[in-house]
Specification:
The complex is a heterodimer of chains A (341) and B (535).
Chain A (H helix, E strand, L loop, with lengths): L4 H12 L1 H18 L1 H4 L6 E4 L2 E3 L24 H10 E4 L37 H37 L1 H14 L4 H11 L4 H12 L1 H15 L2 H9 L3 H38 L10 H10 L4 H29 L1 H4 L2
Antiparallel strand pairs in A: 1-2, 1-3
Helix pairs in contact in A: 1-13, 2-13, 5-6, 5-8, 5-9, 5-11, 5-13, 9-11, 10-11, 11-12, 11-13, 12-13
Chain B lengths: L6 E12 L2 E13 L4 E5 L6 H8 L8 E2 L4 E4 L2 E2 L5 H7 L4 E4 L3 H4 L6 H13 L3 H14 L5 H4 L9 H13 L5 E5 L7 H18 L2 E6 L2 H7 L2 E6 L2 E7 H6 L4 H8 L15 E16 L4 E17 L3 E5 L6 H8 L6 E6 L2 E2 L5 H10 E4 L13 H11 L6 H14 L16 H13 L5 E5 L7 H18 L2 E6 L2 H7 L2 E6 L2 E7 H6 L4 H11 L4
Parallel strand pairs in B: 3-9, 3-10, 7-8, 8-9, 14-19, 14-20, 17-18, 18-19
Antiparallel strand pairs in B: 1-2, 1-4, 1-5, 5-6, 10-11, 12-13, 12-15, 15-16, 20-21
Helix pairs in contact in B: 4-5, 5-7, 7-8, 8-20, 14-16, 15-16
The chains are: A mainly alpha (341), B alpha/beta (535).
Chain lengths: 341, 535
Amino acid sequence: MSLSPISKRRWQSFKANRRGWWSLWIFSFIFILSMFAEFIANDKPLVVSYKEQLYYPVFNDYPETTFGGDFETATAYRDPFVAELIEAEGWMFWAPVRYSHDTVNYNLKVPAPAPPSSDNYLGTDDQGRDVLSRVIYGFRVSVLFGLTLTFFSTIIGVAVGAVQGYLGGWVDLIGQRFMEVWSGLPMLYLLIIMASIVEPNFWWLLGLMLLFSWMSLVGVVRAEVLRARNLDYVKAAKALGVNRWLILIRHVLPNAMVATLTFLPFILNSSITTLTSLDFLGFGLPPGSASLGELLAQGKQNMQAPWLGISAFLVLAIMLSLLIFIGEAVRDAFDPRKAHL
Amino acid sequence: MSAEPLLVVDDLSVSFQMQSLQKTVVHNVSFELHAGETLALVGESGSGKSVTALSILQLLNPTQVSYPTGSICFKGEELIGADRFTLKRVRGDRIGMIFQEPMTSLNPLHTVEKQINEVLLLHKGLDKSAARTRTLELLNLVGLDQVSERLQAYPHQLSGGQRQRVMIAMALANEPDILIADEPTTALDVTVQAQILTLLAELQERLGLAVLLITHDLTVVRNVASRVCVMRDGVIHETGSTVSVFDSPQHAYTRELLEAEPEGAAPIVESHGKVIIEAEDLRVWFPIKRGLFRRTVGHVKAVDGVSLKLEVGETLGVVGESGSGKTTLAQALLRLIPSTGRIVFDGQEISGASGKDLKALRQNMQVVFQDPYGSLSPRMSVGPIILEGLHAHGLSEGAEADEARAIKVLEQVGLEADALNRYPHEFSGGQRQRIAIARAMILQPKLLMLDEPTSALDRAVQVQMIELLRTLQVQHGLSYLFISHDLKVVRAMANRIIVMKGGQCVEMADATAIFEDPQHPYTRELISAAYTAKV
């Protein structure tokens, strides 16, 4: 892929910001790792060998009868009885953490929430679920939610901003006034009201938040397009007879991309924060799902169990800080005042 | 000339620190400035003259700039590395400075009175009423009219020339010994330029100022300066009295500069009556809207009833000062902005054309803009830039054939084929302008609108550009509409000339007639300002 010299220089400038560059690597590493959460924290073994035959419980459900058990239901591998049956005729290979985000540890020696132990590295929450596992899954949900929301709000925001700026006139006027009214709606209340009507899930929340988050980019994109519309090379393209939508895409939008890219990490950040705060308030993802906000709420309710609050806080703080560092590096790389140096 | 020079710049070098590499832009420059004289630093853009001037007042960002060698002595006091108290004493008090762009060097939120008072209160410790009296006196000195009303005016309410007068008043407020003028007239129209230069000369005589004039304009230098330093690439090539430098230049570069005057005239075209474009009573009025319901309360008449006629193969020069509607006229003819009136292009009425007709028209009517830095997309390499027009009109004949055409057109404008894969920023201003011309030429237009195509270029490059345009015109039988505020360039290009003022055409005649026997007083004023700039 060949980059234009501007992009090359920006990439160099981004790399020159060591903090942002390392943050990007660390964040990407953690994020990709969390994509394979099922292989890191799972209440099913990764591979089971039983009577010379290999089974992959991560991918398939096997009834207990497969392994000589009594029930037709999915195998509960953590059940000591089942484990014994399998171990007698073969072996099991487990993930490093033997709990999924919703696995309840019934063998706790103390009442839940249990403190960190060799069994639960970060302790358990007040329902006996492993905190480490919940944190891993919670991180994944948060980032995925943030990325999806950022992706859709960017597409809508850029499109609306570009059309408003490029067409101007009544389209622009009506669009701007609509946004002023729309942004006056209290988003959090609306989400809370909706939460009492429908059972919120990932996509419901995404849709509801998208109703408002698309506006964050419209302003900058519109301003950039308004400016770029009068650039000489845009006029030149017009005089060449290039189709006006082609001009918008080829000549005008690349200018707006700078502003968009600069904002992306910050939008991602605020999306994650919004989801976390909804979960904290109890209006977010359905009960039982892994969520950092819910863990924070538990930490608040169980002040005697500091491992809850501290774990959630650390994960959130590290994740958001990394994103901010990346965002700062991107912003510096795109800063036109540095471009001439 | 007094024995002791006021300002001694000795062996000065200036370096900019950019991330890891260091770039020296001024090399071992030395000059002296005596009381009562005008020293001109002349050079093309990028020659380091402004950097030298800014170093004198230590106005460059100290985190980026270093001075590897040299000293700057003002009345025996070293300014390089001087503490801020010394600098504060010198800046604005002993050495005043005026900049090129009077709009951006005045604070847009302060009234004229406040701007000038600030200098007085800061350095002189005058009280409010004394400062006001002094401000009035200064504004009278710099020849601003309706002084007492102007005191409360904001910069945007003043014209360019008036703003520059305010700047000069500010610089003179504390009766400095030295006035540094960094391209003081470049942003102004020619007639205003002459007034400002006259003013500077008068003030210098009256107050015994030493003036360090930084400019690229040799006409200005010849009329104003007593001594000249010719700079190029950060080095002073020649220093001497104005008369000797102009009459017997020693250095090859000085000779090159002096000879770089647009010469010759447009190729003579036999009158054959074939008209390429004709406009009748063309108007571009921008409505002024006020109030809650945006009622139209009046119009800005950018182009007001202009009629013109351009014959095939001919060049029509459009002359006028900034704001006279030249560019608007061209854009209206190109149908880039709406207008009223009749436009006939190549025998076809185009004032109402739209969609397909307009697109077909675009192929035959092309434009080259003033700013070669802004008119090429920085994100595209030269190949796609040149070929964009072909693709837009469906004239593409496959990648290879297109590339061959692009190379051919690049060669026509005097560029190498390897330019295709390079990006605009790798080219100089003159080369970029050639690329812009190539982009227009590949469509083989009949009419080329040239909107100040040479204004952003140095004189020597301007001359080459004019040569190129004349050659292309003869080769392809092109017609040009050539817009410029620079009469020397227009004289070298145009067969016929329209003089515009305030959106109206005040005179239209053959080029020779305009220059030899101007009818309208405004034309006469323009010509005398451009050719003499007498002081």
